Amino acid sequence: MSVLFMGSSLLTPLYQLYRADYGLDALGLTLIYAVYVIGNLAALLFLGRLSDQLGRRPIVLAGLTLAALSTILFLLASDSTLLFAGRIASGCAVGLGSGAATAWITEATPSDRRSLAASTMTAYNFAGLALGPVVAGLLVQYAPWPLRLPFLVYLALISAVAILVLTARETVDRGAAGSFDLTPRLAVPPGKRLAFAAPAAAGFVAMASVGYYAALGPTMLHDMIKLTNQALSGLIVAELFAVAAAAILLTRRIEPRRVLLWGLAATPAGLAALVVAQSRASLPLMLLGTTLSGMASALSYRGGLGVINALAPADRRAEMASAYFICCFMGNALPIVGVGALSEAIGAADADRIFALGLSLVALAALAAARMFRGEARAKTASERPDARAIRT
User: Fold this and answer.
1) Where are the domains of the chain?
2) Could you read off the pLDDT of 84-125 as tens digits, one per residue?
3) Is 377's pLDDT higher than 50?
4) Which of 38, 70, 218, 267 has the smallest count of CB within 10 Å of its CB?
5) pLDDT tens digits, residue range 285-323?
6) Computed over its alpha carbons, how large is the radius of gyration of the chain?
7) In angstroms, how far apart are the furthest CA atoms of the chain?
8) Which residues contact 369 (CB under 8 A, 6 or more apart)?
9) Cα–Cα distance measured from residue 282 to residue 272, given in angstroms and rounded to the nearest whole number
């Protein structure tokens, strides 16, 4: 899980080099980042249930193979064309392999600990995202071949993990797996759509913050904070993911709706700190904003997923979860492309302010909707409860 997600953030410290060597503008960089979602969506919609039918091991190995293919494309890239292809393959690798790995870990976890498995695996996702910019940033700053060596190291890591996967115990009986079916399944039942809106918006906002850091973090640190050390830039971006992983682990026993409200309430504060840090070129404020944004993203994402799981009927849980992930992927791509386009039109500083204001408004609207729905749910429960005289009778 961690190694697959590490591949999706390995390029983060390299975007600044691609901008200089390949003549890319802000929009070009954000598009290279955003096409990753195409691979994610393809895997989620069409390949998400393959491991139920073919087994966990072969699908995880297929995900690792796609990750290796994307890495080779990055190694061979001499212009932006192969970068786009590599990002799409990387997105498909993460979508395919991480879904199968999640199910595999859950099935291998003792039943009395499975309630905590989802939070733990989400923390490993963010831990992998943190590893990417740390490893690549150090190699770019202090080692030769900055556009090649990070990918060679990552290929070696994929090979080591593949060996471990080959030795792991399979948990799916292929003979009992059922018929082969690739039909996409995602839906929100009509009676659940209002309640779905708040956690879906929370996932959108959380992944937009993550996407902003992964795509534009080092460029923003270079241009506005005047930070030229790529290793330090990678560490600051990794801080967001590390804080997110810690926040998920520390709150995994807390009720998801409460965590969701905390994350949405903290989102505007984190974004405001980032805007002020940019306007004052303040590294301490940037570290504070990164910490707050990491906490807000993790709590919004984890809380939203937990609320969706509790809200969904047992026979529709996978479909509603898939719809939630679609909203997350859209948040991870669309606002980032918007920031890139606005940066070309009005400048990066104003584009970042619009991004922060827009996300803050969405977070506050989702917070209000989540609180309203909780009040309505309590009122409905109270109205359906028989009164004391009826019970005595």
Assistant:
1) 2-169+187-392
2) 999 999 999 998 888 788 778 878 878 777 667 767 778 888
3) no
4) 38
5) 999 999 999 999 999 998 998 888 788 776 666 677 778
6) 21
7) 83
8) 194, 197, 198, 201
9) 13
Cα–Cα dist 393/385, whole Å: 15
Which residues does 54 contact at the CB level (< 8 Å), separation at least 6?
172, 174, 177
Note the residue count of the chain: 393
Block residue for tokens 């801080």: 239
- Average pLDDT on 264-273 reads 95
CA 270, 329, 334, 212 dihedral sign is positive
What secondary structure, in 3-state letters, does 290-320 show? HHHHHHHHHHHHHHHHHHHHHHCCHHHHHHH
* CATH top-level class of 2-169+187-392: mainly alpha
Q: Which residues contact 24 (CB under 8 A, 6 or more apart)?
A: 18, 32, 80
The more confidently predicted of residues 149 and 55 is 149
Can you give the pTM of this predicted structure?
Answer: 0.84
Return the C-alpha torsion angle 273, 20, 237, 281, nearest 10.
Answer: -30
Measure the CA–CA gap between 304 and 53, rounded to whole angstroms.
Answer: 28
